[in-house]
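User: Modeling request: complex.
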Amino acid sequence: MRRASNWLLWGYCVYLVLPLYWLVTMALRNNQDIVAGLEVIPANPTLANFAEIFGNPVWYQGFANSLSYVVLNTLISVLVALPAAYAFSRYRFMGDRHLFFWLLTNRMAPPAVFLLPFFQLYSAIGLFDTPLAVALAHCLFTVPLAVWILEGFMSAVPRSLDEMARLDGHRLGYFFLRIFLPTIRGGVGVAVFFCFMFSWVELLLARTLTGSEAKPIVVVMTRTVSASGMDWGVLAAAGVLTIVPGVAVVWFVRRHLVKGFALGRV
Amino acid sequence: MPERRSTNLAWFGVLPVVLVVAFSAVIPLMTVVNYSLQDIFDLNTRVFVGFDWYRETLRDPRFLEALVRQGLFSMAVLVIQLPLGILVAKGLPKSGWRASFMLVLIALPLLIPWNVVGTIWQIFARPDIGLLGAALAGLGVDFNYTASPVDAWITVLMMDVWHWTSLVALLAYAGLAAIPQAYYQAAALDGAGPWEVFRYVELPRLRSVLIIAILLRLMDSFMIYTEPFVLTGGGPGNATTFLSQYLTSMAVGQFDLGPAAAFSVLYFLLILLMCWVFYTLVMREAHE
Amino acid sequence: MPRRVGRCRYGVLAAMSWMAWTAPSATFFVAVLLALATLTVAEVLRPGQVRRGLLGLVTTRGDRFFISLLSGAALHVMWLAATALPVWWASIAWLVLLVVLMRWG
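Assistant: Request completed. Predicted assembly structure:
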């Protein structure tokens, strides 16, 4: 049994790594090479594809646009979710369970359902083709996610901490910012991570709510494919670069990540 | 531990969230309901048609086929990913640098933009430039996901397993890590074999985490759009056109406001129903 | 060109024209809002007890209302899918269901 599960784990890792390895080798080869034939190890590796991306404003603008709405979305989500998660974990109030369920349904709802009204809504209020539009649209699923994660971490902190602070005469605001927030630092990190991640990986809403001005990197990738034939090398290089921010963010929360999953709140 | 205090002042804490989500969920949903009842030429020229779009959508063979396809796909996803995820989680090292390394490696597919996942599998599975496609061709298998519906399904499923099994594995891993050692020692004293340990010690304690894994995988597979959009574009024919694909082509491609809105409402109701069933299950679990 | 409605340049009406309101859907949403308000007032005046009824689920008044709405939606969808008969019949059946669920559910 032990040996069998070890073999399975190794097999699974190979299965995970192979497509990624292939993406990286593609990024290191030029297009003629790629089309000419299969090379398991690139014979003459080149960084030309990455140079193309860093030299072309369409590409690096795309990165900047994506980062701006992702950061905006993460800020909004975590800021509004903090007091709500505290309310859910510490108090009972009328309709609390129904509210929680309602938030959850928004995490589960397919973005495609909201496509049509979002397009009309953001056009009507003049936000179409701005990073703010995408950031607000992504709040649909990142806010419930952040509330869910933070509520889990907050409920793990004993309520006696709140009682003690109250007996010491601290105001709620002071207690929340100076005592409680530092206690759940890890949880905030995990919430930031998941908001960042879900906003970063989404394509459908980001594509529908942007035109030429705020076009995000994921859209640049799909449009380049259809416009100028298949430039596999550059496409792969862009793919490699989009993986970098996720890896960078996961590095900061690596110690809290398992606890985040233990609460089952993704 | 003190009980949760009962006060309706807590509503002030949730108010910002309610406002943000109301703006991005309630107003759009109301709009969709409004659109679904009318034939809209433009916003000033519109005719009330009652439930006609719903009748039409519910009798649209392409909608029904997409629905069946979606159901089959989600079932296949659950049947493959749950056992595989649990097995991977059981094999993962418990501590040390190897554990951290493996966890980051396993989390990796979850961090990749969904269209890049599609691109990765596109260049991996293509018969001309892809490692997998070329390897299969070398073995004499005629594998072409752009021409054969079966191959397209296999590729989309392999891609989804690659993309999301990690989520199940991480959830199960965290659930396993929470089981106290004493349970294993007691099972060892009783002379339980590996299967009995799994069946009677681990599985019961993984229940709640697995319900959440099923919920997340079911819901997320029900909204799959981007990966097949990049990989197969819903084809060959309509072989991999799932609900979101069809809805998006109606809403953005043809800009059919009325029918697309009726479709959206039906789709949302289905999600709401499934979500409620699971929420009730999870809550029961939490009470017992 | 934005039209002037009232004093505000983007008046409430102009801003909502993209929502394409119709009288029936507006009535429906107002009815749901009124029902929610009624439930809230009832909860303040006479807090409801959690109970286990016909459904075999532990529910509050709000839960039963939500279940009624959801099953009403399902009923109407099934009606539309199965027959071409007027929708009113399903609506009347639903009203009966609503009363049963709220009272004994």
